[in-house]
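A favour, since you know our structure tokens better than I do. What I am after is a single protein written out in full by you. Could you add the entry underneath, on a fresh line?


***
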Amino acid sequence: MINNKFIYLCNILILNQDIMSTKSAYILKLLNVVSWIAFIGLCIKAGSLLASYGVSMFISEVGAKNLPLGLDLSALKAYDQIDYSIMVFCITAITIFEALIFYAVIEIFLKINFVSPFHETIGKLIQKMSGFSLIVGILSNVTVSYSGKFTAMGIQLPHLMEHIGLGDAFLFFAGILYFISQLFAKGIELQNESELTI
């Protein structure tokens, strides 16, 4: 009787483990797809920012009004073309580094081995993500300060904050990723030691 209950409990635990591993695999595939979508979307956004900038500088003033996702920097361009160029450069750089974060995530999905996950390449990719997040955080905060000068003068910059992002959140994210990369380095060290002892 006790053996039957034990076998029944073991079967339930094995079944739950199979369900959990299926759920985990599904979630990881979903995260991989979302990472690809975000990466491609950010690349398109960066390209359209540069194309609109080129149009606004060399072809027509309307390009400054029709930047991606409702961004309108035409008032800034009318005020000063150099400030306009700096602002577009900052927003484009932020977008490119955000895309690089997602590209690093994609590389992790491509290179990770779940049997032996602690590998130097994964640790380096996490460190890269931390560095890119730090750059995005710093650039976002600098761009917010820079745009504050123009809003104080009454120059309207609609939808600008949606493109700049939350610099403090990226700085916090960079710190967390750096901590995780250090944990990975310790995990790699422990994994190498256990392989040597076996």
In short: Residues 1-20 have pLDDT under 50 and may be disordered. The radius of gyration is 24 Å. The chain has one domain: 2-197. The first helix runs from residue 2 to 58.
